[in-house]
Amino acid sequence: MSDIEERNAEDVAPGFMDAPGHTLREGLVTYAIGFALAALLTAGSFYVVRTNLIWGPGIVMALVALAIAQIGVHLVFFLHLTTAPDNTNNALALAFGVLIVTLVVGGSLWIMFHLDRNMMPDRMMVKMGLERMASESALSVQGVVAPAEPEQIIARVSGVVASVQCEDGMHVEAGRTCVEIDPGPFTAAVDRKTRELQAAQSRLDDDRAKLGVARGALERAEGARRSSAVARLRRSIEGQERRVDRASADLEHAQAALAAAATELAATRIVAPIEGTIGARNVEPGRKVSAKATLPLFVVAPDSVRVSAMVGAAHSDRISAGDKVVLTVDALPGQSFYGTVTKIEPPREGAGAMVDIAARDPRHALEPGMAASLRIFPR
Amino acid sequence: MTTIETPTPALGRRADPYKLGRAEVLATGHGEAGPASKRVVVAFGFWIFLLSDIVMFSAFFAAHAVLQTATDGGPTGRDLFDPTRVAIETACLLTSSFACGLSAVATDARNRFWTQAALLVTGLLGLAFLSLEAQEFAGMIASGAGPQRSAFLSSFFALVGLHGAHVAVGLLWLGTMMAQLFVKGFGPVLYRLICFNLFWHVLDIIWIAIFTVVYLIGEGR
């Protein structure tokens, strides 16, 4: 370290006092350890994404843990953030920085997640595109909220109810399982039909093999010009061809029966047909339900309402099904509802075209008969 | 029998349990060993700036995290990102950071040649990183996945571009300092070198967050 002692005066900054006790070797070792650890953790991050070792949803947590570990390595080995007294202020500043970063990032994610769930169903706002919202091509029309027709949840197969997973007043997504019928008999039916299908398949294979053998024999007999054997073999082949036809018809029948059994098995899981709120429960676990019953197991009040509006004949050709709609009602100031055009009737003489709109209303705030102001955004 | 006197820390004197074998380090700047050295004060001031920079980055990170799935039917991270390129970029930046650390060791030893050499490697690796990133951006824009395509891509270009701009400014700073070091020697450049070291390491820390959040997690979205 003689060159450190022989330092020139102009090599020292004004007011400079060296950090004590660091030799060249120590410095190199510190950086080398830091570099090795950081490289290892980086490789770990890239490996975690590729491997199947970690359960899918856990990968994000693993990546975050590795990143935090690596940031720690950088702070200690590269930025020399230690617990030494000279470093207290730096560590406190860092703690404050971490607090702010956590608030900004965590808070944004938290708030936006809630907004997303409550305010922007189906990411409708994103789909609509904000620039289109401002465009002057929007059509302003008046409409009326039509009564909402609840959908019925019915059983399509008969059986004993194994479990009921929907309650009165519960909010459900479309496709959510509400009732499960004991699948036992239906599983058994599927198994039986599968075995029958396999049997039919092996019969068909057998018959085809026999037919092949007989055809081979016929060829040889024809080659040897044994006319009596040829006639006998021809008759036998005709019989066997009929058997193959029958067997393949049986196979098709067995396939259809298996498909029907599988459909019935799938129908033991009874799902909500639309997104909405469950009501009028009429099912208990352990009781039997019938596919012929007239009373539904549940009804679902939809989260969307139908709004009818009259559009002037001059504008009706600009609208097509699927156009986005924003609507407001006088009774609920400050609230906007989002929907799409579902149906347009051709314009009638002297009137306009009737347009049907399905608008999302997850809180069931819209009531039948309310007058609505609509803005339709033609594509 | 004689009683064995165990040395007890004198009351009123600071028994610092966190010295970790650095008994000679005095807590300067805490009213005990005089004012902190200029080295400590300069590093602290620059550290505060860097933390404010990190806070600014956190806003861009928050925006990107919220908008990561807002692709408007356009390309997603899975379609756009090339993990190999990201791995090479990461290796460049990490090695650059390491080389920058070595330059600090050489600076401590007041060795001009090795300081300049380490700084040169730092700069070249930074340049390699920047050109890879420019290549990625150009490819994305050429394939119609520019910042105007979707909110996801706007936030992507804003966040990754901001980091790239920091790297570019850092390279300019590095070049200037190498020239100053060549002409004037260590004296006036010493604190700038310390600050540059901090800056460069922090850029690498931000890149850790970017390759984790934007690329690796974003690829799975």
Q: Given the C-alpha coordinates, what overall shape of chain A results?
A: extended
By secondary-structure content and strand pairing, the structural class of chain A works out as: alpha+beta
How many distinct folded domains of chain B?
1
Question: How much helicity do the residues of chain A have?
Answer: 40-55%
Order of helices and strands of chain B: HHHHHH
Q: According to CATH, what is the class of chain B?
A: Mainly Alpha
Number of domains of chain A: 4
Which two chains form the greatest contact, residue counts included? Answer: A-B, 67 and 71 residues
Name the CATH architecture of chain B. Answer: Up-down Bundle
The dominant shape of chain B is: elongated
Mind explaining what this structure looks like?
- The complex is a heterodimer of chains A (379) and B (221).
- Chain A is 47% helix and 20% strand.
- The longest helix of chain A is centred in the middle third of the chain and has 40 residues, at 184-223.
- Chain A has helices at residues 2-5, 24-50, 59-78, 88-119, 124-128, 130-134, 184-223, 227-266, 313-316; strands spanning 139-145, 151-153, 159-164, 171-172, 177-181, 269-271, 276-279, 288-289, 298-302, 304-312, 324-329, 337-344, 352-360, 371-377.
- In chain A, a hairpin with a 7-residue loop joins β11 (324-329) and β12.
- Chain A is extended.
- Chain A has a six-stranded antiparallel beta barrel. Chain A has a four-stranded antiparallel sheet with strand order 2-9-7-4, with no helix packed on it.
- Chain A is built from nine helices and 14 strands.
- With 379 residues, chain A is of the alpha+beta class.
- Chain A folds into four domains: 2-119, no CATH class; 126-148 and 301-377, Efflux pump adaptor protein, beta barrel domain (Elongation Factor Tu (Ef-tu), domain 3); 151-181 and 268-299, OB fold (Dihydrolipoamide Acetyltransferase, E2P) (Beta Barrel); 184-266.
- With 221 residues, chain B is mainly alpha-helical.
- Chain B has one domain (38-220): Four Helix Bundle (Hemerythrin (Met), subunit A).
- Helices cover 72% and strands 0% of the residues of chain B.
- Chain B contains six helices and no strands.
- Chain B has helices at 38-67, 77-80, 83-108, 112-142, 151-184, 186-220.
- Chain B starts with 37 loop residues before the first helix and ends with a helix.
- Mean pLDDT of chain B is 85; it is low at 5-13.
- At the A-B interface, α2, α3 and α4 of A face α1, α3 and α6 of B.
